[in-house]
Amino acid sequence: MSNRYTDIHERLQYIGREIVDVFHYIILFLIGLVVIWTAGKEFLIIIYKGSAELKDILMLFIYLELLAMIGIYFKTHRLPVQFLIFIAITALSRHLVVDVQAVSDYFHLWLLATIAIAIMALSASIVILTWTARMFGRPEDYLDDHHASHKAGTYSMDDNTKRRRE
């Protein structure tokens, strides 16, 4: 009875993982199409104007980073948080360069300080994420190992710790 339950459980786990993967691919493909469409529209506006301003170029960089993040997921099946942080830094930099000029003088100083602090905090988070990934590994690096060893009943914390330090 227990063996039959385990077989059904494993099949359902497999089906569930496959369904999630299919939905990931469909949604990422649609997001990629929307990003390409929007970047193309932005590019056509630049061509129509006859010149590109800094805000337009920074916006194209944001689109490029979004496409790179989607491409990395298709290649590695992982979605690195660092790319989201890079996108946020680029968006804040764009806001700092383009939109801050339009605010009042009193508010201007606080807005500049807040955006600068936010960029520094995001940059520090990238340093911390990179350092911890080098020292301890990423959780997704051990996900497949955990599933395989859990299935075999041989998983232990000592094995996981040894793999992280290698």
TrEMBL record:
Transmembrane region positions? 20-37, 57-74, 81-97, 109-131
Asked if the record carries the keyword Cytoplasm, the reply is: no
Q: Which residues form a coiled coil?
A: none
Q: Which Pfam families match?
A: PsiE
UniProt keywords (A-Z) are: Cell membrane, Membrane, Transmembrane, Transmembrane helix
What does the UniProt entry say about where the protein is found?
Cell inner membrane
Family per similarity comment: Belongs to the PsiE family.
* Official protein name in the record: Protein PsiE
Q: Which InterPro entries match?
A: P_starv_induced_PsiE, P_starv_induced_PsiE-like
State the PANTHER family in the record: PROTEIN PSIE
* Its membrane topology: Multi-pass membrane protein
